[in-house]
Write a structure and sequence with these properties.
The protein has one helix and 16 strands. The protein is mostly beta strands and 173 residues long. It has one domain: Jelly Rolls, CATH 2.60.120. The radius of gyration is 15 Å and the shape is elongated. The termini are far apart.
Length: 173
Amino acid sequence: MSAGGANKNEWSFDVVLGGGSFTSKNLSGGESASVFSFTTVAHEPDHEQWPSGDYRMQLDVPSIGLDVTYGVLDLGTAEGHFARVSSDLATEHETKQQQESAFAGTGLKLCTTGGVTWSSGNASDRFEVLVCAQRAANHGNQTMSLRVSADCFGDGPWEEAVMLNSIFFGMNF
């Protein structure tokens, strides 16, 4: 699978969100937080049994403050993940984390689960990706920006086109 629209199952943020950049909340020294969340629209991916395989999200980070690390994994007290969630977004049925260590710095960052298997659920369950950030230093405030571009995507090993629509929630806890 490749980025930039080559996958028929690709969740393209550029198409859905129309481009632009989003900035996280201020992270004070020693703080961790959920900073960005992406969730498919209701009834997508529309499968009771999600396929086993690699689920991915590529982030395009144009700017980030000093001492900030981030990714689709738990950082400090913040829980980042790929998830199977209920249709009303009230319940996380199952979560997976990226296999890479937390990222630092700007540029394109590919978060991957590696080969995972999901438990069977309801066809109405939705796919969610929650990005967390952490500031290790104990003073000052820093932010990170996420650029919505043709290089920013999420996908999974579904055979048919299922991830074409998304809802973006800019987190500001």
